[in-house]
Amino acid sequence: MRQSINPATRGLRPRLRSAETSAIHKLRRISLPLLRLAIGIVFLWFGALKIANMTPVGDFVGNTLPWFDRDFVVPALGWFEVFLGLALIAGRMLSLVCAALVAHLCGTFLALVMQPSVTFQDGNPLVLTTEGEFVVKNLVLIAAALVIAARFHMQDISVEEADELAVAEARSLVVPQAVTEPGTNNSR
């Protein structure tokens, strides 16, 4: 007896969709921990370089904070970065750790104010130097820290529950209604 094959399950498109769904489920499980670990490793590494006085940004940091002794402030920031990195890797108290991380990263924008001739080309705030790009890219790290802080508790729930929460959050967003001209009826 021949088994009937559902035409909807044949072909390349359904197989690709199935592979995509499978990949998405796997990525949902590992992406947040990978993001946390990656940022943790970077902060651990960069902090260690500051402590060992081997960082290429030591003078840049010291000149951004001229009211502190460079020989104190650079290693002190290094120790703080090592702490943040280890805390991210450990994955404990992430809301507090991410708040400290965001505060630290916001502090880096002081370089744009304290050293505009170093961070902007020809004084133009739209044209960054290498140092300026180094600072502005911290916007991405701030966003990543906010994602970690907002989502770390979701690791304790299933992917399906996380999906349901995400859908509920998306549905709760208010979408503005289209503006209609007077005298027209927009109801259907």
Question: How would you describe what is shown here?
Answer:
With 188 residues, this protein is mainly α. The chain contains nine helices and two strands; from the N terminus they run ααααααββααα. Helix 4 packs antiparallel against helix 8. The longest helix is centred in the N-terminal third of the chain and has 40 residues. The model has no long low-confidence stretch (mean pLDDT 85).
Q: What radius of gyration results from the CA coordinates?
A: 24 Å
Report low-confidence residues grouped into runs of 5 or more: none
Looking across the biggest beta sheet, what order are the strands in?
Answer: 1-2
Shape: elongated
Q: H/E series, N to C?
A: HHHHHHEEHHH
Provide the residue-averaged pLDDT: 85
Quaternary structure classification: single chain
Describe the structure in brief.
With 188 residues, this protein is mainly alpha-helical. The chain has helices at residues 12-51, 58-64, 70-90, 94-107, 110-114, 116-119, 130-136, 138-151, 159-172; strands spanning 120-121, 124-128. A hairpin with a 2-residue loop joins β1 (120-121) and β2.
